[in-house]
């Protein structure tokens, strides 16, 4: 089949057309068992197309093809500089098609077109270029031993890697994954989220155009319970890199443990604390707190969803944060003034509404918001809860929507204890003008990222990942290369 959509919007005009099959061995093919899923526009809940979805049999085929490509036309057969050139070319092609890619992302996810264009697509391009640079620079070590031996290490590609990504930032997650995997010489079987299958399909022809040998990148749309599960269990996949929920991460590790003990890295959920001390620069704190929780409509793993505000600044912060939240424009993602579009799906809409209900039932106070916005699509008002207690579900669990809980605190020790009172440990933020306080607290927080006087903004050359149940391993930066390489030690007896 083919997907075709005519965009006639204030921010993007043009038609996007591409095949909707499975992308295996450099070609679009039909799944072994004929099946499709609907693609839904979250702005109005209308079906805008269908894409093919695979099954475990298609995974078998793709893994075989990827193994073949690894052995014959990729892996150790291609010089690092050549891999770098291809990644750079792919980045150039994304840049040439950036407006269309952004439009597809805005359509499928429901995010503002300007955000998709400036944050998502530019971030993707930067990520591919960053890893293009690493392609010929990831060297091992030389080690002299006491036994008069010389040893050296090689960073070898793992082989066929499986990559499973979520719907909140489809292309960003794809590039965080394929960038380091291709730079280090692996071949890939990637499954996009069934909620947002479009942009990955559009990328397939760019992969061919860039000049990748057939079978190096294979993309199979499908359900988590079938394609995702088959990948996690597959004996021919040596590694799974996953981004998504903690529940699914657990299933993937179980599948890996039951089968070939494949290496697993996980980027999971969060309930990140955002700590605002009395001496914070208030306008900055308000601006960033809003970005922390409302960016991507709260559908960000690093969202600053627990906002801790010190007693002395609390009233003033709440006044300004409330005004800021109420001034955000909700609407069509393609209107230039839109800040916040719809949530991604009916499922997510219901899930967030259930959390809002549970907060009310548990006795928290809806300070603002708490309801649907408009009459169609999956829009939810920016929502702030106060009067929260630590045992409430809205304080403990990841809501993944534009819903903040604000908690007043008194002193440093108290807030560090509360901030760390969570099963998660993905990210955190601290607002203060006191450098000693900032660094002292930064070192006490159990999280993979601490942002000081900013938040919710990963950088391509800085590692990103979770403590505790937020994950295993790090993406981005040099650290991500370790997700996709096996270290081989060679001993030479002198
Ligand atoms: P999800 O876990 O439901 O789905 C993620 C992916 O896993 C999808 O492609 C899905 O099809 C697949 N999947 C589902 N069941 C599977 C199974 N049994 N085996 C294998 N694969 C399976 O998550 P989601 O709803 O798409 O995304 C939201 C979650 O992702 C949030 O919890 C969020 O925090 C997390 N997330 C984390 C990061 C990060 O970097 N830490 C980034 C983005 C999103």
From TrEMBL:
GO molecular function: aldehyde dehydrogenase [NAD(P)+] activity
Family annotation (InterPro entries): Ald_DH/histidinol_DH, Ald_DH_C, Ald_DH_CS_CYS, Ald_DH_CS_GLU, Ald_DH_N, Aldehyde_DH_dom
Signal peptide start and end residues: none
Pfam family, one: Aldedh
Record-annotated active site: 267
Keyword terms of this UniProt record: Oxidoreductase
Domain Aldehyde dehydrogenase: 32-490
GO BP annotation list: acetate biosynthetic process
Family: Belongs to the aldehyde dehydrogenase family.
This protein's name: Aldehyde dehydrogenase domain-containing protein
Organism classification: Eukaryota, Fungi, Dikarya, Basidiomycota, Agaricomycotina
């Amino acid at each position: 089949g083919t997907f075709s959509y005519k965009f006639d919007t204030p921010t993007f005009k043009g038609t996007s057309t591409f095949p909707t099959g499975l992308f295996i061995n450099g070609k679009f093919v039909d799944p072994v068992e004929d099946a499709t899923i609907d693609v839904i526009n979250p702005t109005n809940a209308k079906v805008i197309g269908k894409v093919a979805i695979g099954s475990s049999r298609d995974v078998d085929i793709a893994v075989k093809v990827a193994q073949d490509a690894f052995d014959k036309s990729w892996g150790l057969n291609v010089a690092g500089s050549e891999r770098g050139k291809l990644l750079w070319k792919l980045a150039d092609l994304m840049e040439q098609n950036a407006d269309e890619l952004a439009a597809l992302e805005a359509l499928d996810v429901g995010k503002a077109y300007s955000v998709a264009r400036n944050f998502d697509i530019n971030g993707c391009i930067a990520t591919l270029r960053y890893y293009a640079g690493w392609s010929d620079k990831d060297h091992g070590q030389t080690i002299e031993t006491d036994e008069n031996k010389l040893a050296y290490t090689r960073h070898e590609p793992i082989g066929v890697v499986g990559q499973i990504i979520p719907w909140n930032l489809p292309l960003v997650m794809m590039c965080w994954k394929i960038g380091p995997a291709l730079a280090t010489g692996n071949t890939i079987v990637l499954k996009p989220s069934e909620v947002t299958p479009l942009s990955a399909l559009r990328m397939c022809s760019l992969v061919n155009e860039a000049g990748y040998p057939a079978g190096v990148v294979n993309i199979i749309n499908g359900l988590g319970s079938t394609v995702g599960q088959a990948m996690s269990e597959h004996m021919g996949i040596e590694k799974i890199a996953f981004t998504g929920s903690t529940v699914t991460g657990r299933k993937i590790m179980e599948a890996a443990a039951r089968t070939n003990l494949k290496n697993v890295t996980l980027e999971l959920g969060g309930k990140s604390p955002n700590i605002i001390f009395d001496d914070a620069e208030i306008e900055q704190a308000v601006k960033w707190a809003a970005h922390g929780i409302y960016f991507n409509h709260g559908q960000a793993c690093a969202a600053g969803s627990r906002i801790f505000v010190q007693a002395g600044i609390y009233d003033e912060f709440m006044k300004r944060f409330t005004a800021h939240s109420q001034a955000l424009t909700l609407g069509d993602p393609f209107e230039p003034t839109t800040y916040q579009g719809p949530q991604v799906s009916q499922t997510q809409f219901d899930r967030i509404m259930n959390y809002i209900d549970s907060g009310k039932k548990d006795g928290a106070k809806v300070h603002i918001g708490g309801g649907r916005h408009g009459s169609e699509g999956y829009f939810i008002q920016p929502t702030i809860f106060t009067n929260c207690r630590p045992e409430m579900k809205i304080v403990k669990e990841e809501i993944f929507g534009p819903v903040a809980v604000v908690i007043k605190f008194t002193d440093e020790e108290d807030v560090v204890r509360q901030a760390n009172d969570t099963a998660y440990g993905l990210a955190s933020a601290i607002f203060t003008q006191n450098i000693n306080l900032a660094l002292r607290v930064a070192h006490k927080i159990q999280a993979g990222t601490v942002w000081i006087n900013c938040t919710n903004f990963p950088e391509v050359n800085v590692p990103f990942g979770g403590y505790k149940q937020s994950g295993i391993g790090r993406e981005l930066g040099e650290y991500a290369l370790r997700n996709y390489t096996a270290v081989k030690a060679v001993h030479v007896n002198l």
